[in-house]
Amino acid sequence: MHPDLSAHLHTDECNTLIKVFTSCQEQHGFLRFLGYCDPLFTDVQKCLRRERINQRKEDRESNRQRMKALRERQAKGLAEPYKEV
Fold first, then answer.
1. Which of 41, 52, 46, 49 is nearest to 18 (CA)?
2. What are the residues whose beta carbons fall under 8 Å from the beta carbon of 85, sequence distance 6 or more?
3. pTM of the complete model
4. Which residues contact 40 (CB under 8 A, 6 or more apart)?
5. Which residue has the higher pLDDT, 80 or 33?
């Protein structure tokens, strides 16, 4: 299974691969069930995986910066430390 293939969610590279894959499925109605479009689908999966890995790296770095700023504010006494409820 793959994520939503909407164009606004992916890079231009992946959008191009997605368009080629979907056109293959539309043009080869029966052959797609025999694996005709499988190599294209593999390329789409690889591209989506690269996107996901890059997004994780960006999120991780963003979270590190946010936590660093929070710790600095806590050290200065400007923010309350985390308390469990």
1. 41
2. none
3. 0.69
4. 17, 20, 21, 24
5. 33
